[in-house]
Amino acid sequence: MSALSGRRFARMNGLGNQIIVLDLRGTSLVVSPEEARAIHRGPGLRYDQLMVLHDPATAGTDAFVRIYNNDGSQSGSCGNGTRCVAFVMTRGSARTELKLETIAGPLECRRLGEWSFLVDMGRPRLAWNEIPLREPVADTRAIEVSAPPLERPAVVGMGNPHAVFFVADAASVDLPTLGPRLEHDPMFPEKANISVAQVLARDHVLLRVWERGVGITAACGSAACATLVAAARRGLTGRSARVTLPGGDLFIEWRESDDHVLMTGPVELEFEGQFDPALFAGIAA
Question: What φ, ψ does residue 261 adopt, rounded to 5°?
Answer without folding.
Answer: -105, 125
